[in-house]
Amino acid sequence: MNEVLRLEGLTKSYGNVPVLKGVDLTVRRGETVCLIGASGSGKSTLLRCVNFLGYPTSGRIFLEGKLVGREITDRSGTKLVKYREAELCSVRAHVGMVFQQFNLFPHMTAEENVMIAPIKIRGLTKSQARDLAAVHLGKVGILEKARSYPGQLSGGQQQRVAIARALAMEPAIMLFDEATSALDPELVGEVLLAMRQLAQDGTTMLVVTHELGFAYNVAHRVAFLHEGTIHEEGAPEEVLVKPRKPRTQDFLRGHTTFRMPEPEL
Amino acid sequence: MTYHWDFGFLLQLGPLLFQGLVNTVKLWAVALVCGLAIGLVVGVFRTSPSRTLRVIGTFYVETIRNTPGLVQLIWIFYALPILTGMQSSPWIAAVVSLSIYAGAYSAEIYRAGIASVELGQWEAAKALGFGFINQMRYVVLPQALTRMVPAFGNRAIELAKATTLASTIAFGELLHTAKTIAEDQYRPLETYTALTLLFTAVLLPLSYAIIQLEKRLGRKGTLHRE
Prior knowledge:
Strand content of chain A: 25-35%
Largest sheet of chain A: 6 strands, mixed
Distance between the termini of chain A: 49 Å
Largest sheet of chain B: none
Structural class of chain B: mainly alpha
Radius of gyration of chain B: 21 Å
Helix content of chain A: 25-40%
Largest interface: A-B, 31 and 22 residues
Strand content of chain B: under 5%
Shape of chain A: globular
Oligomer: heterodimer
């Protein structure tokens, strides 16, 4: 099974306002897919549907080849997917999520933040979980801060702890929801570097980002989301350098207004 | 006419007053513990995703908050036995009544404390795979509880004063003891003055401790460890 995540015809509306209008997307094992697009295009909504922090209005989500939920046909003959909360908990435990605002638990040390879910959900012992935390905190280069509380860490350090916390559940796929957007500019680099390392280690990742440089250098595929659908999708060079669709070109032009001068040789 | 103050007789009746104080403290402590426990359950109901639980919680809180504590006590002592056929002692009636009373107010403190925890904390716990109860238990409540401490302190003082309601059903707490002494000795002025001083002496240190605690938590900027 090479395919970790497949979305089929995913839609999501808030009341009468459609945000996602039928998204099809596949993420294969070991692949990093970057979702780009303007604010309000539905990137975060899409990501939040994947681990059911928001419920899709219609469409199907397959995790490691298995349909999440149970498909039923209602009286009018429309196909619906019903979700059970217990199943969604187990889905969420298999999908790692990194938030824009980090959302570390402030009453726990960095290490405890990483340990809590493996202990309470995966049933690890305390010492197993501590070893696991050391591995993942080490992976994102922040092992020396294991005993610090989130309030004692910089934004970049907090976000790296948050990444370790998600990794410790050994998820099938990692979701990043604008993981660097809340950071001071000088702290963005350390987080992107950690994410790049994960991608190179073969972690399956779906990344919502405004960092086009990251998307270009790290992603295997880039999907440009526009008005609730995937407007253009392909290899980074295709989508970011030679976009075919006018909307993608407009979006990219907006991003490159202030280009740094090339150094003179 | 000048009134001739005489507190001397109270010294001899010291043991009696002390028994009243012991009963007051006992009632206060038991009702506080039960009230906090009831409040936790109801407070969690009030923030639960289940509509039924929220309705039950709201009904309880609004019923209790909008009736006088004295009426509740009298209802439980005089009316409830008619319904159930079981006569309860003043002690049981006072404990039950004050626990229900304290439960409603502390439920509101829990609810407000829980609501003060950022949505992102719930989501982060949820995203790790925790269900509602465990999101509450491991992530939300530990943060909310520290924020609730000052409010609980105030509730504890309120409840200590509310124990005097039990004098109306002849439970031998401080006010009831004082009433007995005052009538027996024909000296209400000295007796009730002494009662006032006694309450102040017991509650003032508690109030002061709460103010200090609030200051300490306030100085930290936020109430959790940072």
